[in-house]
Amino acid sequence: MKKASVLTLSLLALTVASAQKVTIQYATWDATRQKTDEALIAAFEKANPTIDVEYNLVPWGVYWQKAAAMTAGGSTFDVMWMNLDNFPFYQSQGALAPLSVPEKSLTSINKNMLDPYRVGGKLYGVPLGPQAVTVFINRALFKERGVAVPTKEWTWDQMLDAAKKLTFEKDGKKVWGINAQDLQVDLEYGMSFYYSNGGKGLIKKSGKTFKSNLDRTFSDTAQKLSDLIYKHKVSAGPADVGQQGYQQFLAGQVGIFVEGSWMVPVWSQNPDLDWAYAPFPSLQKGKPARPVFSAHALVVPAGSKNKEAASKLIEWLNTSTQAQRMIAQKGLLPTLADQYKTQYLQALPGRNAGVVFDQLKNSVIINSDVRNLSNLPEVLTALNTSMNLVWTGNAKVADAVKNATKDMQNLLNQGKVIGSN
What we know:
The protein is α+β, with helices and mostly antiparallel strands and about 425 residues long. It is built from 17 helices and 15 strands. Residues about 10-15 have low confidence and may be disordered.
């Protein structure tokens, strides 16, 4: 009887433990950090044996179709990546749940990244990142073409001169100086040049009214960037058939590549690629560059049935020593970037990675002061539609800016401040 009682109690304990275990669905669009995310999830599950996490990598286009289901409470995901362009809409529609993350665990997170996800005194997202727009260079090509490798300050003119020297034919293939096909002025990579050129923001806010602000700085930056393709011919154009910019850089066919700090794991696919960071170029004499960083965040859909476990995963990923160290050791910027700078630099020896931290001090979050505009995504889409004609060589900058200003303003006149009557 005693043995039977022990067995019964053991089975009962096992049943209770199984009943308490939950499975949460984690969704992201970022394939560049898949291996890192999977390693993080494994570490989290080991530290939290009552929670299983299933990883879901969803392509960008399909991702937002899935996210749209949140507004109907039909999402099957428990933790999702969110960007600031879309956050106000989903939050205002009741599609997101407030997080049960202790405030004391968030005190070290950059306030500028955290505050946009606070609404009505409640926190709806904890930012990942910072996801910084950076400059990568192919040092082998720089050496081959006799171009000095930039290590500290770099100007637009110096970058352009380097791009010209780095554009040539090699073994029957075209080598391009820079990936300007990715630098459309109204998107995050191109916007990094706009802010570095003295840009103040594409939309002006005054009380509850908004006005288009495509000023001379915007037009000048758009012209500089499009000239890289159509005047200076140091970049492939967006209509050129072939590999994407990152594939060309990976193959050693681009000398200067502007994208995000998250690309580091991709470069490891080519062990022969001699890459390094370079300073983001300044476009204003005597003033530092002001590139963009994205404050993507982890959120919990209101339809999640495992909100507590989801919040626990979000807190662990963004604040735990183990997770932050793992991310930095993979050459990615953790949420607490400054605290884990040493681990980050150790993961990228000889890559001039210190410039990433130098530029973060002056980096900008796009449209940070107009995130509560109800139809911001539609306004930005109108801008993109006009400026895309410049990028494909089908319109002059002045004409595109004129049309974009009109279309944007029509939409801005219809927009409202989210949360106001």
